[in-house]
């Protein structure tokens, strides 16, 4: 944790913007608190591990100790006068149509990058056929995930060994060992290798870009909400095929794991605004097949892999906002609550890695730049007038809310 100590020492006399003095102090104080709290948690974790080792040697018992989180999401909170102060981002479309649908906000500084988040993609049946088609998105990963070359120096073997392809190969080796039954006692079981393309896929339901691809039937096999919640909690981002999004959104959103970035994003498998002769030809073939023939229709279905990859890349890099349910409710009994109670928009503005050496001044600038972009988007597309904004704050999931400057100061800042 020597890096954390050096980071703290860099911020003794840092005032990044005199017009945003409150915001600067709040952001720097929050980052310092995260670093010091992480350092304390690491010490406690090491002590508990040592105590566990001593107890296990005597009692031969094993207890699981959870390590501290290495990455923390920082949220930008915008408090608004009431739900009636919100408007639809698109004319002639009611705000109720955006019920629990995340709206992507473009940011100058990326929240995350491809390869860091576990992505679940729920597609139309049959899932294994569409998994094979979605694996074409993997060819666009090369430019995004190549090891960086500094000073025109050649890529060493160590750089390639620590890259995403080596991690993929190691994961394959572990999965192959499990499939061979080397780690299980039941050696009589018949093991069937379902991998169709071992060059780009770990299992039949995953690709290099998507950690898991489920069909609708696979998701419906989960018997109760607890199994569904446990499954969804293992992923950072959830994507829905636009053809089954309306059907699945109601079922998925009944669980309590959908918060912030866990809100399902709807992905289109092709650009509807672009004319494509290949798609028209495929659609005519699908119509000639008639009813049934789901597998045959899926095998010839059209997917624009580049367009899908661009959507996924934008979701990972940027952040999103979800309108509170009270603003999208059509229940007449909620009308009084829409006009009397204040609401808050919670938007993730930055993700900080506590294990890496990060300059606090640089991180503060990134956070303030993102907050400015978020506020500009909300005022332009979602809030009727900036006068309805009561206050803005910044916080994490486990910290207190820190105050920010006025709306005009943030929007008119040079960030």
UniProtKB/TrEMBL annotation:
Residues 147-190 are annotated as: Disordered. Residues 149-163 have a biased composition (Polar residues). This is Ribosomal protein L1.
